[in-house]
Amino acid sequence: GAGVSQSPSNKVTEKGKDVELRCDPISGHTALYWYRQSLGQGLEFLIYFQGNSAPDKSGLPSDRFSAERTGGSVSTLTIQRTQQEDSAVYLCASNLPGSATQYFGPGTRLLVL
Amino acid sequence: DAKTTQPTSMDCAEGRAANLPCNHSTISGNEYVYWYRQIHSQGPQYIIHGLKNNETNEMASLIITEDRKSSTLILPHATLRDTAVYYCIVRVTPDKLIFGTGTRLQVFP
Q1: Which residues are CB-neighbours of A11 under 8 A, at least 6 positions away?
Q2: Does B45 touch chain A (CB under 8 A)?
Q3: Which of A24-33, A73-82, A96-105, B47-56 has the lowest mean pLDDT?
Q4: Is A86 helix (H, G, I), strand (E, B) or coil?
Q5: What is the pLDDT of residue A14?
Q6: What angle do CA B1, B3, B38 make, to 5 degrees?
Q7: String of b and e for A70-104 (b: at least 16 CB within 10 Å)?
Q8: Which end of chain B lies in a sparser environment, N or C, as judged by fewer CB atoms within 10 Å?
Q9: For A49, how many CA atoms within 13 A lie in the half-sphere containing its CB?
């Protein structure tokens, strides 16, 4: 079945470069979330979209991080001027309207050299 | 969202029931208890949730105490594939999940 998909699955970049991570939520899921998981750590909330608007951006760690969502579907998380501490797995999740059960994608593993 | 407390790790023999406890003593009346698990190198997977009553689905059972201050996730016949980190989360709003450190369950042959 069509679950949440993320691309790329792995990304290696050099410090200072910009990266874009993509999330395709499950069709019909109006809410979309980005989380980050550093090696050996728990999941850290980054941002939440309801439709195309982001009512909660409280987890974005710095102004180098931004996200957008278009057409109420695909979302892109952009990290500018990457730093080594940005290395982590970036996870996307979505859920149906009125449901609090989130469905997660497989994640993008980002390594900043 | 209410804070939860879980043991850091647990072991379980294959085929036996795995009982994972969670304390949420500050839970309020409209907060649900959710359980997710994360198998190594995968995204978290929803298991089950409940408000007051005990719940059962094809994956697990959730037992919530009458005062709602604690709950237990039960995997009735654990398999090696159930080895994962299990997260207990309490929440009321349909937005971000606040993950704690979870319980690392190791199922052994």
Answers
A1: A19, A21, A108, A109, A110, A111
A2: yes
A3: A96-105
A4: helix
A5: 97
A6: 90
A7: eebbebebebeebeeebbbbbbbbbbeeeebebbb
A8: C
A9: 27
CB contact under 8 Å between B97 and A102, yes or no, is yes
Instruction: Report the alpha-carbon distance of residue B102 to residue B8 in Å, rounded.
Output: 7
Q: How far apart are the CA of B42 and the nearest CA of chain A, in angstroms?
A: 6
Q: Which two tokens stand for residue B84?
A: 């994962």
Cis peptide before A25 (omega within 30 of 0): no
Taking a C-beta distance cutoff of 8 angstroms, is the pair B52, B66 a contact?
no
Rounded Cα distance between B20 and B11, Å, is 10
Interface test with A, best of B4, B91, B97, B103 (most A CBs within 10 A): B97
Instruction: Say if residues A35 and A45 touch (Cβ distance below 8 Å).
Output: yes
Instruction: Read off the amino acid at residue A88.
Output: A
The order of strands in the sheet holding A5-7 is A5-7, A19-24, A75-79, A65-69
Q: What is the pLDDT of residue B94?
A: 62
